[in-house]
Design brief:
37% of the residues lie in helices and 22% in strands. The chain is an alpha/beta fold and 637 residues long. Among the domains are: 178 residues, Rossmann fold; 134 residues, ANL, C-terminal domain (GMP Synthetase, Chain A, domain 3, 2-Layer Sandwich). The strands form 5 sheets. Strands 2-1-11-10-12-13-14-15-16 form a 9-stranded mixed sheet, with helices on both faces. Strands 7-6-5-3-4-8-9-20 form an 8-stranded mixed sheet, sandwiched between helices.
């Protein structure tokens, strides 16, 4: 059984599993080694963590010291994290995709003493900047090929192979084990567990200080809200553990509940890994679900004829059945029979591709388009949405398993308050808690504020920024716009993203973009129009569908021209722009657009590691093409 108390910390959760839920020899971690999936027990994990702790103590690393990780999701991440956490050191995970400049900034700002590295590319990146990082004492590669990299003779940091550190696993002297135990048991929930750097869409990265209590309480109340998660689950982990969502929703939940964690090999191999691991739960982002949705629709309808009719019939039956169940009504014998047929002919084949055992998926990181959530609901695959930020540990609200309201991000978690504040007057429109929930409650929109156990300790070494984010009454200002709808929190957009057109009309980009993203021809869409007379957009086409529609060679997408100018392709996209405009108010409709040949990328600094567009960067970089859209003639509505 899960045991939470006033003294719970991250390392205490895993120890509780071994004492009260599983045997030490039971499987905790699963990863692909060569052609086979290898299982790792709780005993091996805890012994490896102790070896890391012993290394730290031997090298003068103590409570409060910052320890870095720049490594893919793997057992090594868990060993290192558990090892540093149980002696009170602080986890500073760095996105592997960040530039050398950004990595150097984070290492220096946080004062990282030792850095675990996952592969040769990252190792070389760190070696280039290591001598600029005065506090960095140890670079710890976790891969054998590190020996092939030539080290500079003037490198100040010492390079130590992680396997050599783990070699002491299970061989520590009793006195050392007792020392580690004493430190672990002396930790308090208020101690800082992690610094997570948020790149955001603008400005200098800030280190968000999250305590053991922030994480533990977040896990505790999420398990209360989703009580169907038990010790038999297998999670498949593919979102980066450097991001707070995956760390809490997968890693910490599994540490608390005794679930298995299987690590996907890569995003490219995710579909294959799902079939092999057959997970019961997964954390994911809307973009993945959108791609599964688009692929399923295309596969089910592209052949036309009887196959397409059966597919569309099945979706209609799934929708009717879902709506009856959600309204707490009996679907009846006939509809239930049709649902069983739809399941056998269509739904089961889609579910097989996920491994066939999924109980549900948890979506976070961005808003899930309502139609995508409903699509999965029609298939009988439950998608639970959550909302939060790095600064809120992260979960502020999450869908209840038994009560789905598509287009919302669920009920307020226990123990916190969420307020809606008028953007202009700063008057508090409404405050809701878990206990004030009413299924028929709806309020006006405004900025979302939160107060309670999930709110961060502050930004590391940035008191002014902390004071700006958390007001004198303890409210953290999220910068997100939303409201309560049918008792659940509903996100409208980011406050900083809001477009005010030349006529003073407020346009929130996300819901408008989501309407156009219903088109299978469009992969990404970036809305423009602040202080302009009308909206325009930069569109990234769905490469696979575009290639198929015009029989294009791959070389077409490798051309140096940034934008596609072919009229027939512009007309092809334009048909769907006109089609979906009918669902929008006139001032929300796109009047002109350009088709970008390549997706927005992290390498170009156009999006954050969590795939959010950097508005100022994109608008500055493509200023000429944007201005062109406002000098060209456009059709009237």
């Amino acid at each position: 059984m899960v045991s939470f108390n006033e003294f719970s910390t991250i390392p205490s959760l895993l120890r509780n599993v071994v004492e009260n839920i599983h045997k030490p020899e039971d499987t905790f971690l699963i990863h692909k080694k060569g052609d086979n999936w290898e299982e790792i027990s709780y005993r091996s994990t805890l012994n490896a963590a102790d070896a890391v702790s012993a290394f730290c103590l031997d090298h003068g690393i103590t409570k409060g010291d910052r320890m870095g990780l720049m490594i893919e999701n793997s057992p090594e991440y868990v060993y290192y994290d558990q090892g540093i956490q149980q002696i009170g050191a602080i986890n500073v995970s760095i996105y592997p995709t960040l530039s050398e400049h950004e990595v150097e900034y984070i290492i220096n700002d946080s004062g990282i003493k030792a850095l675990l590295i996952g592969n040769t590319f990252l190792f070389k990146k760190v070696l280039k900047i290591a001598n600029n990082c005065k506090d960095l004492l140890y670079i710890i590669p976790s891969f054998e090929e590190y020996t092939k990299v030539v080290l500079s003779p003037d490198l100040r940091a010492k390079v130590l192979y992680f396997e050599d550190i783990l070699a002491k696993e299970g061989k520590l002297e009793a006195g050392v084990v007792q020392q580690i135990t004493d430190i672990r048991e002396s930790l308090r929930p208020a101690d800082t567990s992690a610094l997570i750097y948020t790149s955001g869409t603008t400005g200098t990265p800030k280190g968000v200080m999250l305590s053991h209590n922030n994480f533990v309480r977040n896990v505790e109340v999420c398990l209360q809200q989703i009580p169907v998660i038990d010790e038999t689950e297998t999670f498949l982990s593919f979102l980066p553990l450097s991001h707070v969502f995956e760390r809490t929703a997968t890693y910490h939940v599994c540490c608390a509940q005794g679930c298995k964690i299987a690590f996907a090999q890569s995003l490219e191999l995710l579909a294959k890994n799902m079939g092999e691991v057959r997970p019961t739960v997964m954390s994911c982002v809307p973009r993945l679900l959108e791609k599964i949705h688009d692929k399923a629709i295309k596969s089910g309808t592209s052949a036309g004829g009887t196959k397409a009719k059966i597919f569309l019939w099945a979706l209609d039956i799934g929708q009717a059945y879902r709506q009856k169940k959600e309204a707490d009504q009996n679907p009846g014998l006939l509809l239930s029979l049709k649902k069983a047929i739809a399941e056998k002919l269509v739904f089961s084949k889609i579910k097989e591709k996920t491994g066939g055992r999924l109980k549900f998926m948890i979506s976070g990181g961005a808003a899930l388009p309502k139609n995508v959530g409903e699509f999965f609901g029609n298939l009988g695959i439950k998608i639970l949405e959550g909302f939060g930020l790095t600064e809120t540990s992260p979960v502020m609200s999450v869908t209840e398993f038994h009560r789905q309201v598509y287009g919302t991000v669920g009920r307020v978690i226990p123990g916190i308050e969420i307020g809606i504040q008028d953007i202009d007057t700063k008057h508090m429109v409404n405050v809701q808690t878990h206990d004030t929930f009413k299924e028929d409650f709806t309020c006006e929109e405004g900025e979302i504020l939160v107060r309670g156990h999930c709110v961060m300790q502050g930004y590391f070494n940035k008191p002014a920024e902390t004071a700006e984010a958390i007001d004198k009454d303890g409210w953290f200002h999220t910068g997100d716009i939303g409201r309560f709808f049918k008792g659940n929190l509903q996100i409208t957009d980011r406050l900083k993203n809001m477009i005010v057109n030349a006529y003073g009309k407020n346009v929130y980009p996300t819901p408008v973009e989501n309407i156009y993203l219903k088109s299978l021809k469009i992969d990404q869409l970036f809305l423009i129009g602040d202080k302009r007379e009308y909206l325009t957009a930069i569109i990234i086409p769905n490469q696979e569908n575009l290639q198929e529609a015009f029989n294009l060679p791959l070389s077409f997408f490798a051309k140096p021209d940034l934008f596609i100018e072919e009229k027939e392709i512009l007309d092809w996209i334009g048909k769907d722009i006109k089609k979906y405009a009918a669902d929008l108010a006139k001032f929300e409709r796109i009047k002109n657009f350009k088709i970008k040949r390549h997706p927005f990328s992290m390498e170009e600094g156009e999006i954050t590691p969590t795939m959010k567009p950097k508005r100022k960067v994109i608008e500055k970089k493509y200023a000429k093409i944007i201005n062109d859209m406002y000098t060209e003639s456009v059709e009237a509505d």
